[in-house]
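Worked example 3. Consider a protein that binds coenzyme A.
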Amino acid sequence: MMTEPAAMLSSSYRLRPMTAADLNEVYVLEQASYSYPWSFGILSDCLKTAYLTRVLDNAGQAIDAYGIMSSGGGEAHILNLCVRTKLRGQGLGRYLLLSLLAEAKALEVDTVLLEVRQSNKAAISLYESIGFNELDIRHGYYPSNKGRENAIIFAKELIGKDFW
Ligand SMILES: CC(C)(COP(=O)(O)OP(=O)(O)OC[C@H]1O[C@@H](n2cnc3c(N)ncnc32)[C@H](O)[C@@H]1OP(=O)(O)O)[C@@H](O)C(=O)NCCC(=O)NCCS
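Given these inputs, the predicted complex is written out as structure tokens:
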């Protein structure tokens, strides 16, 4: 059983659904975080679907992290997980991911899937530390400044697991 990660967070943090009013701020974090970021339109469309969208809101002052997940048919896909650059390495990403897994479990999801760039060592280390296992590699899946980059597909079974 994992340690309750909320204890590592300042009590000023609140995990809540993303709203249209958050999109400008989320878009800025997105642009600062990825070499091929999602457009404002893609982020906005995520609010119009049945996706689960969450932000870590620091006392209404700033959004410091966000996550987006789809679910259906017993599977969930983590589509985005992002922490403000200057606040990385402090447990926000782990907290957010565990929170999404807990929500997936509440939705009776059996398997959570995600894909990650092979070069994204921080994210891969986070996923492996939480018990995600490599399922597959999609060769040349992502654009990159060196041509194409592989995606690693990770999966985690939720059946019978306790995350907190
Ligand atoms: C991946 C990301 C969400 C991690 O968030 P974070 O808040 O920095 O992560 P945490 O502080 O919760 O760290 C959790 C674990 O991640 C791994 N990790 C985090 N930063 C790391 C780094 N710089 N190098 C290696 N591992 C790292 C470690 O396993 C760490 O566990 P530890 O603290 O016990 O060593 C964050 O780096 C990020 O937003 N990156 C840009 C967006 C992105 O690439 N998202 C993933 C898309 S698939």
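Take a moment to read the result before moving on. The domain at 5-157 is CATH 3.40.630.30 (Aminopeptidase). The chain has a mean pLDDT of 94.
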